[in-house]
């Protein structure tokens, strides 16, 4: 709910909203290029050279993520980066932008960081019973076997597409005031 109430730059607001939806590494998000977005197949294909493990990574895009990208396109879609720097369109936004937005929303660095959306998603998706291997693949945690990893970038893709849409729907429910279940019973 706090993210939806962010009143700073519209471009930063979109990056902030995509952070929990996509749960990619913050550097991957801020360096996202329009040429990597495939609206027809609802995918973002991050080239190997941009990934920590140097393997192509496919991020299935939920309906919510696609809507945000379509809102962003009129502003930055003619350039290289989804999220260009405020100073020059030839570079991506600062690596401090999303964390700065979280601070403006009142979150301390001990409470939430841009990178923290990854562990949050992993924890909740595991708790909800999603396939651990699909979650790990979506987090771009690579196979230790280099040969297998090189051909494994699409592993669990149908399940990951379903999971990413369910995750986006779950986040929508939270933003709309879904029931909060107490951790400890009052009985």
Question: What does it look like?
Answer:
By secondary structure, this protein is mainly alpha-helical. It is 44% helix and 5% strand. The protein is built from eight helices and three strands; from the N terminus they run H-H-E-E-E-H-H-H-H-H-H. A three-stranded antiparallel β-sheet has the order 1-2-3. Strand 1 and strand 2 form a beta hairpin. The longest helix is centred in the last third of the chain and has 19 residues. It is globular.
- Secondary-structure element pattern, one letter each: HHEEEHHHHHH
**Dominant shape:** globular
**Portion of residues within helices:** 40-55%
- Mean pLDDT, to the nearest integer, reads 90
Record the SSE blueprint.
Blueprint: H1 10-22, H2 26-30, E1 37-38, E2 43-46, E3 57-60, H3 63-76, H4 97-104, H5 116-127, H6 132-138, H7 146-150, H8 157-175
Antiparallel strand pairs: 1-2, 2-3
Helix pairs in contact: 1-3, 1-4, 6-8
Question: Which labels suit this protein?
Answer:
three-stranded antiparallel β-sheet, 3 strands, disordered C terminus, 44% helix, globular, 8 helices, mainly alpha, 187 residues
Q: Could you give a quick summary of the protein structure above?
A:
The chain is mainly alpha-helical and 187 residues long.
């Amino acid at each position: 709910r706090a993210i939806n109430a962010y009143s700073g730059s519209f471009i930063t607001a979109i990056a902030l909203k995509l952070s929990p939806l996509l749960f990619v590494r913050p550097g991957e998000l801020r360096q996202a290029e329009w040429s990597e977005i495939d609206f027809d197949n609802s995918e973002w294909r991050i080239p190997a050279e941009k990934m920590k493990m140097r393997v192509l990574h496919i991020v299935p895009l939920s309906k919510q993520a696609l809507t945000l990208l379509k809102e962003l396109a009129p502003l930055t879609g003619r350039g290289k980066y989804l999220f260009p720097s405020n100073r020059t369109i030839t570079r991506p936004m600062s690596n401090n932008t999303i964390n700065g937005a979280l601070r403006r929303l009142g979150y301390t660095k001990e409470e939430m960081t841009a990178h923290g959306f990854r562990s949050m998603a992993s924890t909740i998706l595991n708790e909800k019973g999603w396939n651990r291997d699909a979650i790990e693949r979506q987090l771009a945690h690579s196979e230790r076997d280099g040969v297998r990893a090189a051909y494994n970038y699409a592993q669990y893709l149908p399940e990951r597409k379903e999971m990413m849409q369910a995750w986006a729907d779950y986040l929508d429910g939270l933003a709309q005031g879904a029931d909060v279940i107490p951790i400890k019973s009052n009985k």
